[in-house]
Amino acid sequence: MGDDNTKTLCGHVEDELQVKDPAAYIKLIQPAQHYCQGCGRSAVNAENLCKPEKLP
Length: 56
Known about the structure:
Layout: H1 9-14, H2 17-20, H3 22-29, E1 34-36, E2 42-43, E3 52-54
Antiparallel strand pairs: 1-2, 1-3
């Protein structure tokens, strides 16, 4: 993975961001505008997902 600006949610979860800095993780996922067709995670920005799809 790259730096924090290019890392996908999968990369952040692998690094345990949701445990180490829950507030930072929540900023990435709320309010969700996209979801990943691969893992099912949701995020504000498509670039944070491996296979993004816009939420209806």
